[in-house]
Design goal:
Elements (H helix, E strand, L loop, with lengths): L1 H47 L2 E3 L2 E5 L12 E4 L2 E9 L8 E4 L2 E4 L7 E9 L2 E6 L11 E6 L1
Parallel strand pairs: 2-4, 3-9
Antiparallel strand pairs: 1-2, 4-7, 5-6, 5-8, 8-9
C-alpha cells in the first residue's frame, strides 16, 4: 500500500513537470495572452526590452551558424522569468542563466528546436550564455538586467 502511494506520488510529480513543459511549449503561442491577462502595460514595456510577454524573454541563435545570439542584452523585472531560445541554426545550442546564486540550464537543442530556462530572479545583473562546449568562449553570451 505504501509502495503504491509512493508510485502514485511520483507519478503526480512527473505529471506536474510534464504540465509545466507542455504549458511552456504551448506557452509560445499563449505566452502573450498570459502576459496580456497579467498586465497589458507591462507586456508592451517588456516587448520593447526584447520580451514576448510578462516574465518571458525571447532569444534567437544566429541562423548562419555563427556563435552568437540576436541580442546581447536583455532586461526584465524581478520574479519568475523564462528565457526562450529559438535555434534556427544547424549548430546545437542551449540557454543558461548564471549570477547572484542562480545557475540554471535549458536543454541543448538541434536546428528548429527551442531551449527554455525558467529562473526566479532578484534585482541585479546576470549572465546568459550558450553552455555548449566553446560557445560562450566564442562570444555566445549576454547580460540580463533585472530591475
Amino acid at each position: 500500500m505504501l509502495l503504491a502511494s509512493l508510485v502514485l506520488a511520483g507519478g503526480c510529480g512527473g505529471d506536474d513537470s510534464s504540465d509545466d513543459s507542455g504549458g511552456g511549449s504551448s506557452g509560445g503561442g499563449g505566452g502573450t495572452a498570459y502576459g496580456s491577462k497579467k498586465d497589458d502595460g507591462g507586456s508592451k514595456k517588456d516587448k520593447a526590452a526584447a520580451s514576448s510577454g510578462a516574465g518571458q524573454l525571447k532569444l534567437t541563435a544566429d541562423p548562419s551558424g555563427a556563435l552568437k545570439f540576436d541580442k546581447t542584452s536583455l532586461s526584465t523585472k524581478a520574479g519568475k522569468t523564462t528565457i526562450v531560445l529559438d535555434n534556427p541554426s544547424s549548430v546545437p545550442h542551449a540557454i543558461e542563466v548564471e549570477g547572484k546564486g542562480v545557475e540554471e540550464e535549458g536543454e541543448t537543442v538541434e536546428k528548429g528546436g527551442v531551449s527554455k530556462v525558467s529562473v526566479d530572479l532578484k534585482p541585479g545583473e546576470y549572465e546568459y550564455y550558450c553552455p555548449v562546449d566553446g560557445h560562450r568562449q566564442a562570444g555566445m553570451e549576454g547580460t540580463l538586467k533585472v530591475g
